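Side project, low priority. Logging it here so it doesn't get lost.
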Amino acid sequence: MLNGLLQLGVPFGLAQLVSEEDHTVGLRIFLLDNSGSTASYDGKYLDTVSGGGPQWTACSRWDEIRRMAIDQAQWNATTGVPCEFILLNSPSGQAFTTFREGIDLATVDPHRGDMPAQLASLSDMLQNTRPMGATPLAARIQQIESRIQTAHNGLVGQGRRIVVVVATDGLPTSTSSNIPSQTAQGEVVTVLRQISMQLPVFIVVRLCTDETNVVEFYNRVDEEEELPLEVIDDMTSEADEAWRMSNGWLTYTPAIHTIREGGTFVKFF
Protein backbone atom coordinates (compact mmCIF):
# COMPACT_ATOMS: atom_id res chain seq x y z
CA MET A 1 0.00 0.00 0.00
CA LEU A 2 2.79 2.41 0.91
CA ASN A 3 4.57 1.97 -2.42
CA GLY A 4 1.28 2.38 -4.27
CA LEU A 5 0.58 5.70 -2.55
CA LEU A 6 4.11 6.91 -3.27
CA GLN A 7 3.54 6.04 -6.94
CA LEU A 8 0.47 8.28 -6.86
CA GLY A 9 2.62 11.19 -5.69
CA VAL A 10 1.52 11.21 -2.05
CA PRO A 11 4.25 12.59 0.27
CA PHE A 12 5.99 9.88 2.32
CA GLY A 13 4.70 10.88 5.76
CA LEU A 14 1.12 11.14 4.56
CA ALA A 15 1.45 7.92 2.54
CA GLN A 16 2.70 6.06 5.60
CA LEU A 17 -0.22 7.33 7.69
CA VAL A 18 -2.84 6.33 5.11
CA SER A 19 -1.13 3.00 4.41
CA GLU A 20 -1.28 2.01 8.07
CA GLU A 21 -4.96 2.91 8.17
CA ASP A 22 -5.81 1.04 4.96
CA HIS A 23 -4.52 -2.20 6.50
CA THR A 24 -7.66 -2.11 8.68
CA VAL A 25 -9.99 -1.51 5.69
CA GLY A 26 -11.23 -4.72 4.10
CA LEU A 27 -13.53 -3.18 1.48
CA ARG A 28 -14.88 0.05 0.07
CA ILE A 29 -18.41 0.06 -1.33
CA PHE A 30 -19.51 2.95 -3.55
CA LEU A 31 -23.25 3.49 -4.03
CA LEU A 32 -23.59 5.58 -7.20
CA ASP A 33 -26.71 7.71 -7.61
CA ASN A 34 -27.88 7.53 -11.24
CA SER A 35 -31.35 8.95 -10.61
CA GLY A 36 -32.96 11.20 -13.21
CA SER A 37 -31.78 14.40 -11.54
CA THR A 38 -28.12 13.46 -12.14
CA ALA A 39 -28.65 14.43 -15.79
CA SER A 40 -28.55 18.08 -14.65
CA TYR A 41 -25.59 19.79 -16.28
CA ASP A 42 -24.01 21.55 -13.31
CA GLY A 43 -21.31 19.05 -12.39
CA LYS A 44 -17.56 19.36 -12.88
CA TYR A 45 -14.38 17.33 -12.68
CA LEU A 46 -10.68 18.10 -12.71
CA ASP A 47 -9.05 17.23 -16.01
CA THR A 48 -5.55 17.54 -17.42
CA VAL A 49 -5.33 19.48 -20.66
CA SER A 50 -2.84 18.26 -23.23
CA GLY A 51 0.23 20.50 -23.10
CA GLY A 52 -1.09 22.39 -20.09
CA GLY A 53 -2.07 22.07 -16.48
CA PRO A 54 -5.24 20.77 -14.82
CA GLN A 55 -8.53 22.59 -15.32
CA TRP A 56 -12.16 22.13 -14.34
CA THR A 57 -14.39 20.61 -17.00
CA ALA A 58 -18.16 21.21 -16.95
CA CYS A 59 -20.30 18.07 -17.13
CA SER A 60 -23.50 16.46 -15.87
CA ARG A 61 -23.78 15.36 -12.25
CA TRP A 62 -23.74 11.74 -13.45
CA ASP A 63 -20.49 12.36 -15.32
CA GLU A 64 -19.01 13.79 -12.11
CA ILE A 65 -20.12 10.70 -10.18
CA ARG A 66 -18.83 8.41 -12.92
CA ARG A 67 -15.46 10.19 -13.02
CA MET A 68 -15.18 9.93 -9.22
CA ALA A 69 -15.86 6.18 -9.41
CA ILE A 70 -13.15 5.63 -12.02
CA ASP A 71 -10.64 7.72 -10.06
CA GLN A 72 -11.41 5.83 -6.84
CA ALA A 73 -11.14 2.48 -8.63
CA GLN A 74 -7.70 3.35 -9.98
CA TRP A 75 -6.57 4.75 -6.64
CA ASN A 76 -7.67 1.69 -4.64
CA ALA A 77 -6.30 -0.68 -7.28
CA THR A 78 -2.90 0.93 -6.68
CA THR A 79 -3.18 0.88 -2.89
CA GLY A 80 -4.53 -2.68 -2.79
CA VAL A 81 -8.00 -2.16 -1.26
CA PRO A 82 -10.90 -4.09 -2.89
CA CYS A 83 -13.89 -2.00 -4.02
CA GLU A 84 -17.44 -2.56 -5.19
CA PHE A 85 -19.40 -0.05 -7.25
CA ILE A 86 -23.18 -0.38 -7.03
CA LEU A 87 -25.76 1.52 -9.08
CA LEU A 88 -28.71 3.09 -7.29
CA ASN A 89 -31.09 2.27 -10.15
CA SER A 90 -30.81 -0.72 -12.47
CA PRO A 91 -30.18 0.11 -16.16
CA SER A 92 -33.06 -2.23 -16.99
CA GLY A 93 -35.47 0.07 -15.21
CA GLN A 94 -36.62 -2.80 -13.00
CA ALA A 95 -36.17 -3.23 -9.26
CA PHE A 96 -33.45 -5.69 -8.36
CA THR A 97 -33.09 -7.80 -5.24
CA THR A 98 -29.64 -9.20 -5.97
CA PHE A 99 -26.60 -7.42 -7.34
CA ARG A 100 -25.54 -8.59 -10.82
CA GLU A 101 -21.88 -8.28 -11.74
CA GLY A 102 -21.38 -6.06 -14.76
CA ILE A 103 -24.97 -4.80 -14.69
CA ASP A 104 -25.70 -3.32 -11.25
CA LEU A 105 -22.36 -4.09 -9.63
CA ALA A 106 -18.71 -3.87 -10.66
CA THR A 107 -15.93 -5.30 -8.49
CA VAL A 108 -12.37 -4.01 -8.57
CA ASP A 109 -10.17 -6.30 -6.46
CA PRO A 110 -6.36 -6.16 -6.79
CA HIS A 111 -6.13 -9.68 -5.33
CA ARG A 112 -7.96 -11.14 -8.35
CA GLY A 113 -5.37 -9.94 -10.85
CA ASP A 114 -5.84 -8.54 -14.38
CA MET A 115 -6.63 -5.05 -13.15
CA PRO A 116 -6.97 -3.55 -16.67
CA ALA A 117 -9.84 -5.95 -17.40
CA GLN A 118 -11.55 -5.17 -14.08
CA LEU A 119 -11.25 -1.43 -14.61
CA ALA A 120 -12.54 -1.80 -18.18
CA SER A 121 -15.56 -3.74 -16.90
CA LEU A 122 -16.36 -0.94 -14.43
CA SER A 123 -15.94 1.67 -17.17
CA ASP A 124 -18.25 -0.27 -19.50
CA MET A 125 -20.96 -0.57 -16.83
CA LEU A 126 -20.82 3.16 -16.09
CA GLN A 127 -20.70 4.08 -19.79
CA ASN A 128 -23.83 2.00 -20.43
CA THR A 129 -25.71 3.63 -17.56
CA ARG A 130 -27.98 6.63 -18.04
CA PRO A 131 -29.65 8.84 -15.40
CA MET A 132 -33.11 7.48 -14.63
CA GLY A 133 -35.61 6.87 -11.87
CA ALA A 134 -35.98 8.05 -8.31
CA THR A 135 -33.57 8.19 -5.35
CA PRO A 136 -34.43 5.15 -3.15
CA LEU A 137 -31.33 5.41 -0.96
CA ALA A 138 -32.79 3.68 2.11
CA ALA A 139 -33.79 0.57 0.17
CA ARG A 140 -30.41 0.26 -1.52
CA ILE A 141 -28.42 0.85 1.68
CA GLN A 142 -30.45 -1.92 3.32
CA GLN A 143 -29.43 -4.24 0.48
CA ILE A 144 -25.81 -3.25 0.97
CA GLU A 145 -26.12 -4.02 4.68
CA SER A 146 -27.48 -7.47 3.82
CA ARG A 147 -24.66 -8.03 1.34
CA ILE A 148 -22.04 -7.15 3.95
CA GLN A 149 -23.62 -9.62 6.37
CA THR A 150 -23.61 -12.43 3.80
CA ALA A 151 -21.05 -12.09 0.99
CA HIS A 152 -18.59 -10.17 3.17
CA ASN A 153 -19.27 -11.76 6.54
CA GLY A 154 -15.68 -13.02 6.60
CA LEU A 155 -14.35 -9.46 6.69
CA VAL A 156 -16.65 -8.62 9.58
CA GLY A 157 -15.47 -11.71 11.44
CA GLN A 158 -11.86 -10.62 10.97
CA GLY A 159 -12.61 -7.21 12.45
CA ARG A 160 -11.88 -5.42 9.18
CA ARG A 161 -13.62 -2.12 8.61
CA ILE A 162 -15.82 -1.41 5.59
CA VAL A 163 -16.30 2.04 4.10
CA VAL A 164 -19.62 2.80 2.39
CA VAL A 165 -19.50 5.87 0.13
CA VAL A 166 -22.88 7.25 -0.99
CA ALA A 167 -22.35 9.50 -4.02
CA THR A 168 -25.63 11.37 -4.49
CA ASP A 169 -27.12 14.62 -5.76
CA GLY A 170 -30.60 14.62 -4.28
CA LEU A 171 -32.91 14.17 -1.34
CA PRO A 172 -34.08 10.59 -0.71
CA THR A 173 -37.34 9.30 -2.18
CA SER A 174 -39.24 6.05 -1.89
CA THR A 175 -38.83 3.31 -4.50
CA SER A 176 -42.13 4.26 -6.14
CA SER A 177 -41.95 8.06 -6.20
CA ASN A 178 -39.72 10.75 -7.68
CA ILE A 179 -40.83 13.22 -5.02
CA PRO A 180 -38.61 13.64 -1.91
CA SER A 181 -40.45 13.29 1.39
CA GLN A 182 -39.84 13.64 5.11
CA THR A 183 -40.67 9.94 5.44
CA ALA A 184 -37.98 8.94 2.95
CA GLN A 185 -35.45 11.20 4.67
CA GLY A 186 -36.28 9.65 8.03
CA GLU A 187 -35.88 6.17 6.57
CA VAL A 188 -32.37 6.99 5.33
CA VAL A 189 -31.34 8.25 8.76
CA THR A 190 -32.76 5.11 10.37
CA VAL A 191 -30.96 2.81 7.92
CA LEU A 192 -27.65 4.67 8.32
CA ARG A 193 -27.94 4.40 12.09
CA GLN A 194 -28.80 0.70 11.83
CA ILE A 195 -25.93 -0.26 9.55
CA SER A 196 -23.39 1.71 11.60
CA MET A 197 -24.55 0.14 14.88
CA GLN A 198 -24.61 -3.45 13.63
CA LEU A 199 -21.51 -3.50 11.44
CA PRO A 200 -17.95 -2.05 11.48
CA VAL A 201 -18.91 0.51 8.84
CA PHE A 202 -17.78 4.07 8.23
CA ILE A 203 -20.02 6.15 5.94
CA VAL A 204 -19.13 8.94 3.54
CA VAL A 205 -21.78 11.00 1.75
CA ARG A 206 -20.19 12.49 -1.37
CA LEU A 207 -22.49 15.29 -2.53
CA CYS A 208 -22.57 16.04 -6.26
CA THR A 209 -24.77 19.13 -6.09
CA ASP A 210 -24.79 22.63 -4.63
CA GLU A 211 -28.56 22.66 -4.03
CA THR A 212 -29.03 24.24 -0.62
CA ASN A 213 -31.79 21.93 0.63
CA VAL A 214 -29.76 18.80 -0.19
CA VAL A 215 -26.56 20.12 1.42
CA GLU A 216 -28.47 21.27 4.52
CA PHE A 217 -30.19 17.90 4.96
CA TYR A 218 -26.97 15.88 4.94
CA ASN A 219 -25.14 18.43 7.07
CA ARG A 220 -27.93 18.13 9.66
CA VAL A 221 -27.55 14.36 9.62
CA ASP A 222 -23.79 14.77 10.08
CA GLU A 223 -24.18 17.24 12.95
CA GLU A 224 -27.20 15.90 14.80
CA GLU A 225 -27.00 12.14 14.51
CA GLU A 226 -24.45 10.04 16.38
CA LEU A 227 -23.14 8.35 13.27
CA PRO A 228 -19.65 7.48 11.99
CA LEU A 229 -20.33 9.66 8.97
CA GLU A 230 -18.54 12.31 6.92
CA VAL A 231 -20.18 14.61 4.35
CA ILE A 232 -17.86 15.59 1.47
CA ASP A 233 -18.56 18.07 -1.31
CA ASP A 234 -16.58 18.59 -4.52
CA MET A 235 -12.91 19.51 -4.32
CA THR A 236 -13.39 23.26 -4.87
CA SER A 237 -16.00 23.54 -2.12
CA GLU A 238 -13.92 21.49 0.33
CA ALA A 239 -10.79 23.55 -0.37
CA ASP A 240 -12.78 26.77 0.14
CA GLU A 241 -14.21 25.49 3.43
CA ALA A 242 -10.74 24.49 4.67
CA TRP A 243 -9.50 28.02 3.89
CA ARG A 244 -12.49 29.66 5.60
CA MET A 245 -11.86 27.56 8.72
CA SER A 246 -8.43 29.22 9.15
CA ASN A 247 -6.49 26.47 7.38
CA GLY A 248 -4.96 28.81 4.83
CA TRP A 249 -1.59 27.14 5.38
CA LEU A 250 -2.92 23.94 3.78
CA THR A 251 -2.68 23.21 0.06
CA TYR A 252 -5.82 21.14 -0.53
CA THR A 253 -4.61 18.75 -3.23
CA PRO A 254 -6.47 16.18 -5.36
CA ALA A 255 -4.72 13.45 -3.32
CA ILE A 256 -6.11 14.80 -0.05
CA HIS A 257 -9.58 15.03 -1.56
CA THR A 258 -9.41 11.48 -2.93
CA ILE A 259 -8.35 10.14 0.48
CA ARG A 260 -11.25 11.92 2.22
CA GLU A 261 -13.68 10.94 -0.54
CA GLY A 262 -12.85 7.26 -0.02
CA GLY A 263 -13.27 7.46 3.74
CA THR A 264 -10.52 8.01 6.29
CA PHE A 265 -10.42 7.70 10.08
CA VAL A 266 -7.40 9.98 10.50
CA LYS A 267 -8.61 13.06 12.42
CA PHE A 268 -6.24 15.34 10.49
CA PHE A 269 -8.44 14.87 7.41
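Brief comment: The chain has a mean pLDDT of 91.
Revisit when time allows.
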